Amino acid sequence: MKVYVLRLGHRVRRDHRVTTHCALVARAFGADGLFFSGERDTSIIISVQDIVNRWGGPFEIAYIPSWRTWLKKKLDQGFEAVHLTMYGKPVNKAIKRIKKSKKDKIIIIGAEKVPGEVYELAKYNVSITLQPHSEVAALAVFLDRLFEGKELEKKFTSPKLIIVPQEKGKKVKKVD
Ligand code: SAM
Question: pTM to 2 decimals?
Answer without folding.
Answer: 0.97
